[in-house]
Amino acid sequence: MKAFILAAGRGERMRPLTDHTPKPLLLAGGKPLIVWHLERLAAAGFREIVINHAHLGSLIEQTLGDGSQWGLHIQYSPEPPGALETAGGIATALPLLSDEPFLVVNGDVYCDWDFNRAHQLTGKTAHLVMVANPAHHSGGDFSLDSDRVVYANSEQTFTYAGIGVFSPSFFSGVTPGTIMKLRPLLDAAIAAGTLTGERHDGRWVDVGTPQRLAELDLELRDQELKNA
Predict the structure, then answer these.
(1) 2 close to 103: Cβ distance less than 8 angstroms
(2) Distances from the Cα of 53 to the Cαs of 25, 134, 169, 184, 194, in angstroms?
(3) Peptide bond into 16 cis (omega under 30)
(4) Do the beta carbons of residue 131 and residue 158 sit within 8 Å?
(5) What percent of the chain clears pLDDT 90, i.e. is strictly above it?
(6) How confident is the model at residue 226 (pLDDT cuts 50, 70, 90)?
(7) What is the mean pLDDT of residues 47-58?
(8) Any residues with CB less than 8 A from the CB of 200 and at least 6 apart, and which?
(9) Cα separation, 213 vs 189, whole angstroms
(10) Of all helices (H) and strands (E), which one includes residue 220?
(11) Which of 115, 122, 139, 171 could bridge to 44 as Cys pair (CB 3.0-4.6 Å)?
């Protein structure tokens, strides 16, 4: 199974930090956010990684190289200025992702979901990892009916963690190079009853503001000291 890391966002809410550094390269706990993913993907047996980029993308390639330092092989999917949004970016990168289901991970989240779990989800067309709603997104995105993702209801809602397993066929209707968000495809799958998901109760942070980055950095450094 290959993994696709979304790293093309501009990171407007993180400015001025992202004026000269792409968001996935911002440091937390002494290493770039995206490196936490790479290390955990390698530990879970992943070897082939595809990363899209747009804003300051050359810095991402310069920093990560071919991935050999983590025992990985990294390929890049460059996008035009402004990027293509999630569905558009994935559809454009499909030639690099083969014909098998693949793992998708947002480059700007920190999460301890077990990436080994992805290998058990290859029979799914689209499967989302969901988390408890953070304070900045209290309304959530969806609800869960057993393992089926449904529209948000009054009982309990969850937030999409930015981690999922997708079949290439899920993006077959998206023309490469098109700017398109993921949500319309998810809504169509909900309507068809084919979108599945699971709840993750571990650590998850949407590193969307300088404050949340600073808090995560402190948390990871404290954790390192305790483990030393």
Answers:
(1) yes
(2) 12, 26, 22, 22, 29
(3) yes
(4) yes
(5) 86
(6) confident
(7) 96
(8) 111, 113, 129, 130, 131, 161, 163
(9) 33
(10) helix 210-227
(11) 115
Looking at residue 228, its pLDDT comes to 67
Distance of CA 56 to the CA centre of its chain: 18
Mean pLDDT of 112-131: 95
Judged against a pLDDT cut of 90, whether residue 169 lies above it is answered with yes
Q: What is the pLDDT of residue 98?
A: 82
Write phi, then psi, for 127 (nearest 5 degrees): -135, 125
Contact 176, 167 (CB under 8 A): no
**Tokens coding 214:** 């600073």
CB atoms near residue 146 (< 10 Å): 8
Distance, CA of 117 to CA of 163 (rounded, Å) = 11
pLDDT of residue 201: 96
> Which two tokens mark 172?
């077959």
- Give pTM, 2 decimals: 0.94
| Those residues with Cβ within 8 angstroms of residue 150's Cβ, 6 or more apart along the chain or in another chain | 142, 143, 144, 190
- Report the distance separating Cα 50 and Cα 114, nearest Å: 19
Separation CA 4–CA 6 (nearest Å): 7
In sequence order, which residues have a C-beta less than 8 Å from that of residue 52 and are 6 or more positions away?
4, 5, 6, 7, 8, 76, 77, 78, 79, 83, 84, 89, 90, 92, 93
User: Which domains does the chain show, CATH number per domain?
Assistant: 3-227 (3.90.550.10)
